[in-house]
Specification:
alpha+beta, eight-stranded antiparallel beta sheet, five-stranded antiparallel beta sheet, elongated
Length: 461
């Protein structure tokens, strides 16, 4: 038994064996056995007396030794409690830490004062005056310290390498059920991300939705339940809108006149504009080739402002316009009624007309995906990728696993993680990253345009 214990202990240190346990925390089934196992076979601080540290750029910068007298703390978790505020769980890597001690957050370059020191045992908390190297403790109300930060001496530049979390594999859009919850939802999401860095959120300004992302449906479901239970925020889950882009395939021309006569001063502007396609990734280019005195040059920025506003709001489905060149080549003005706002409105109208005359089309985001699956599921996975309009780029072998590399439109990746888990019995994983924008098939483009038109009409009603 002694040999088995030392052999397993060594294997865990080398990470050649990773133990897996089946337990149920809520029913308290197997909890004691897991704790006993960790106590017997797990790592102690003495197993790794030296830790390789990095600098602010993530490069190796030296070692932190267990017997170093200078204090070094690594904050590995942050939990927010209603009555106490943020609880920072840390491990003392070297030296000693005591209540009231001033430390330096080396990661964020901020000074921190350690307040009350606590030891947690389940729900029980014990206040202590001092903790030594190897101890795990908790402190409260640190001003600007988060999970993954290193606290230490102000002269130290050594940072404990932070944990690297997997990129999210699933994301949803969420919307509060009532307008009054809009402020609370931001606080709730920021708190959840602070406690669990693998949970991410952001506001996608392109599609005007708040996104949450995580490792799977259960991960996100728990986050939504926490929003409801802890922050009293009810949310609806929606499918994320796709950030399409609008562009043109040809060249269009417009001579747009804006004329408005009211009781007071009127508005007049006429803008002659051409719109043509640019190569992918070029953005939006605005130029003027005015000759003569038909239009005062002071109105050129007004026309540009109108064109750029139209590019931002979109023409056919309300998505951003890219890869076009707009040329303001002529126009007309009125000595009294021509003004900045008139040329802005004319610029918007001229751009819209010329854009619609230049064979407009939609671009959709394409993602590179890397799927790792056991060999026996290769056929099913490749068939599913092809069914999602995917393009297989290549395959590699890694032991008994196959790595499939493909490009798939974002619109067809919604809930892909769930489908992959179902196809492979939970043994397939994937990661994705944005690649480029590409032109959409005509039949799908028509459906998106029709849906956008229907959405607009509903809002107008």
């Amino acid at each position: 038994e002694d040999e088995l214990q030392s052999g397993l202990h060594a294997a865990f240190q080398n990470q050649t064996i990773i133990p897996v346990f089946c337990a149920a925390a809520q029913q308290n089934i197997g909890t004691k056995r897991i704790m006993d196992f960790i106590a017997t076979y797990g790592s102690s601080p003495l197993d790794r007396p030296k830790l390789t540290a990095v600098d602010g750029d993530g490069k190796e910068a030296g070692e932190i030794s267990l017997d170093d007298p200078n204090p070094t703390l690594y904050v590995f978790k942050t939990v927010s409690e209603a009555h106490l505020g943020d609880l920072s769980f840390f491990r003392v890597i070297s030296g000693k830490v005591s209540a009231g001690m001033d430390l330096y957050n080396i990661t964020r370059r901020k000074n921190e004062r350690i307040g009350q020191l606590l030891l947690f045992n389940g729900k029980n908390r014990t206040s202590v005056d001092e903790l030594s190297a190897g101890d795990i403790g908790t402190t409260v109300k640190l001003k600007d310290t988060h999970s993954g930060d290193t606290l230490g001496d102000s002269k130290s530049e050594l940072i404990v390498p932070p944990c690297h979390f997997p990129t999210p594999s699933l994301h949803f859009a969420i919307k509060p059920k009532s307008k009054s919850d809009e402020d609370k939802i931001g606080v709730g999401l920021a708190t959840l991300h602070g406690e669990d860095p693998a949970f991410e959120y952001w506001v996608d300004r392109d599609v005007k939705q708040t996104m949450i992302a995580g490792q799977g449906e259960l991960h996100l479901q728990i986050a939504v339940e926490k929003l409801k239970r802890r922050f009293n925020v009810e949310v609806d889950i929606e499918a994320p809108r796709i950030p399409y882009r609008e562009t043109v395939r040809g060249k269009g021309d417009s001579k747009y006149r804006h004329k408005k006569q009211t009781g007071g001063a009127g508005q007049f502007a006429e803008v002659w504009l051409t719109v043509e396609a640019l190569p992918r990734g070029s953005g939006v280019e605005f130029t003027q080739t005015l000759v003569g005195q038909n239009v005062d040059r002071t109105f050129v920025p007004s026309v540009e402002k109108g064109v750029m506003a139209m590019c931002e709001s979109g023409v056919i489905v309300g998505c951003r316009v890219v890869d076009v060149k707009a040329t303001f080549y002529d126009g007309k003005q009125h000595p009294v009624d021509s003004k900045d706002i008139a040329f802005q409105i004319a610029g918007r109208g001229a751009f819209k007309e010329a854009f619609l005359a230049a064979k407009p089309c939609l671009l959709e985001p394409i993602y590179n995906i890397t799927v790792k699956v056991p060999e026996e599921y290769m056929g099913a996975v490749m068939g599913d990728v092809s069914g999602r309009r995917g393009k297989i780029l290549g395959m590699d072998a890694e032991g008994k696993f196959q790595i499939v590399k493909a490009q798939v439109p974002e619109a067809d990746l919604y809930q892909y993680a769930t489908t992959l888990r179902s196809i492979t019995g939970g043994r397939g994983i994937y990661k994705r990253e944005f690649s480029h924008y590409a032109e959409m098939p005509k039949e799908l483009e028509a459906k998106v345009i029709a849906a956008a038109k229907e959405d607009r009409e509903e809002k107008e009603e």
